[in-house]
Amino acid sequence: MRRIYDSGALHRDDAEPQAPTEREAQPRATRSIDGRAWSDRLVPTWLRYRAVSVDVEAPRTAGAEVPFVVTMKNALPVPITLPTDSPRPWTWYVDGVPEASHVDSVPDEAGSLRFDRGERKRFRRRWDRLFRVSDDEWEPAPAGEYTIGAGLSVADAAERGLYSETTVRIGER
């Protein structure tokens, strides 16, 4: 390194045309591409729906509470956004009753669910063995078998493969 400095190769002078000069302007970074916006424009909606999988895992038997995990995965190597029928992008069900509640609490507005490329989303929930029958009244579920399902808030979620369910047996409290 010392030989380079002693040789004057790094000498900068405006009077000498062959000597390197310092740059007055710094190079600007190239514009970044918004991959999510481009993939939403280029990937058709039907393909985005097919790329996402939904899975529900729960213990086969449970006691006072039923814990379960909902996993969603984007299989595409690009980020995607799924349009949904509600601002709440997904919901869970117990025997077909949304969130174990007979009281409708899902708004009718549209929403969306975003996935990065290859992203896996995991949601942990629990059902406390109660069914909501009015705004302030809950009924306990008797012992037996129940189906816990989860799906995206889209029309025909089961036909599109955006719904999954599992069976749980709960005993006496």
Could you characterize the architecture of this molecule?
- With 173 residues, the protein is mainly beta.
- It has a single domain (35-170), classed as Immunoglobulin-like, CATH 2.60.40.10.
- Helices cover 12% and strands 39% of the residues.
- The chain contains 3 helices and 12 strands; from the N terminus they run H-H-H-E-E-E-E-E-E-E-E-E-E-E-E.
- A hairpin with a 2-residue loop joins strand 9 (130-134) and strand 10 (137-140).
- The longest helix has 8 residues, at 35-42.
- The mean pLDDT is 82.
Q: If you compute it from the alpha carbons, what radius of gyration comes out, rounded to the nearest whole angstrom?
A: 28 Å
Distance between the termini: 79 Å
Proportion of residues in helical segments: 10-25%
Strands across the major sheet, in which order? 2-12-11-5-6
Number of domains: 1
CATH architecture: Sandwich
CATH level 1 class label: Mainly Beta
Low-confidence stretches: none
Strand content is 35-45%
The number of strands is 12
Mean pLDDT score, rounded? Answer: 82
Structural class: mainly beta
**CATH topology category name:** Immunoglobulin-like
Assembly of the depicted chains: single chain
Overall outline: elongated
Q: Secondary-structure element order, as H and E?
A: HHHEEEEEEEEEEEE
Largest beta sheet, briefly?
5 strands, mixed
Number of helices: 3
Which homologous superfamily in CATH is the superfamily? Immunoglobulins
